Amino acid sequence: xxxxxxxxxTWLPEETATLMFVVKSDQVLLIRKKRGLGAGKINGxxxxxxxxxxxxxxxxxxxxxELCITPLNVKAAGELFFHAEDMPxxxxxxxxxxxxxxxxxxxxxxxxxxxxxxxxPFEEMWDDDQFWLPQVLAGVYIKGWFSFEGExxxxxxxxxxxx
Length: 163
Description:
Nucleoside Triphosphate Pyrophosphohydrolase, mainly beta, 11 strands, 163 residues, 11% helix, nine-stranded mixed sheet, 2 helices, two-stranded antiparallel sheet
């Protein structure tokens, strides 16, 4: 479905989730998901917000659970809105961190992967990532709207937002 045909004013997510990208000089810490939505794909750590939790608290908790590190100097980097007829509609909150405590460690949920911010493995990531992740890693706050059918990106719009 085309983005312009979705009524975003009345659109409601079925899930609210987060993503965290820990950046160290020209490297970003990604994960290869081992289970759940996007299993096998490369992404940032993250997951669903629990009751009573803020998006930032969720992003930090999920990073701790998936990689055994605590992100530091965390800041909001964007919002993503995913529409699909065959998957849950998701409102995603994106965060970046410029430091962390601990050692990135493989867990039953994720394998840590450091990669250059200039050579992101888009062929192994969700199709939409290429349209917003480089901006987020460059320090730009974005909002993105995406329409999927299964894992196929049908349409998108990404805007830079003054924060």
